[in-house]
């Protein structure tokens, strides 16, 4: 692991930021000199450079609501202050961010931030290719196992999900149409500042991304952000106007196409400051690798509405046969709800009193038929099956479902999934062994009825 000494990194940092700031100023001024302003009469261009400032990653004393254009990740140096020069910078790149003072401090407080490079897949598992009628997408270059890491990427851009301007107070006299026009224009200007801060390679990658927001007033940058960003639940502003999500725009990961039965899931890994994609079920070489752009537990017509802004019609099995699919998804949701489905189910390791597996296996089958291994409903049912088999003293099945549960957690949360709760899950295999032994001891040899044995075990 690389180390940084206080003095040398401080010198490097100053040089780095002087050159960086000059380049950004020059590029932003050039961009705005070339772009005709579409603002209502009497409204001046937003002075982005002065409003937003160009900030080093090290400054942290902003108010929670102050919005910043900054570059991340920073890295903790051994003697206290933050330093530029994260591990793997040359290969992983830096992310341009439009974030709040609150989120920046939250990111800076991650103990291992910048200490790990973005993980690489040993044998490349994906490639980008053109799909007829869908444009660019991702395909499996080889067989991929459930739970396996397919791709990890440091994002090009992270932006606040709320479309707003920092000079809203000056716009109150405008009509709603003019007001909206200024907001779109200002957001485009602020995002332009972030794009101009990218190095030429990353800027080119951003500009090559698809844009499906051509006719709703979005500029080319906002349009690309809206088309290509993933919502990241780990990044949220609790302050100000309620909980606002952040959008993360990647290069290759943003090329993933949608399916209502996606074969992957993704999560944010803060220490390596990367977005990571894993398989939720086995994927064969040549199959398309897909993600979800919308909620999946809802009927076909609702999904179509949510997907409308992406300008494509989904051709997945569930959308081709919506009647069958809707009825299965409805049954899944209902059946899962009947089992309680509390929010913190993954922490409840108490063995169930009802130990029938058939109803659980029926829900599992429906979820598999609908290709919903990515859903928390699937994780919940696998978890219940694991506990139920443990309560029944079925060691082999408990082990099998603890393995499935591990894959589900790994795909949804990455390495963070390997925690105490998972140890407890695998601990259930021992519970199953104990239950099995107890049964053997309590049941009279030869003719123990099932009910009788249970009665004695409970006594
Ligand atoms: Zn679909």
UniProtKB/TrEMBL annotation:
InterPro entries the UniProt entry points to: SET_dom, SET_dom_sf, SET_domain_protein
Bias type Basic residues, positions: 439-451
Superkingdom to which the source organism belongs: Eukaryota
Gene3D superfamilies for this protein: SET domain
Alphabetical list of SUPFAM superfamilies matching this protein: SET domain
Family matches, as Pfam families: SET
Sequence ranges assigned to domain SET in this UniProt record: 119-294
Residue span of region Disordered: 439-459
PANTHER family: SET DOMAIN-CONTAINING PROTEIN 5
UniProt protein name: SET domain-containing protein
Species in which this protein is naturally found: Steccherinum ochraceum
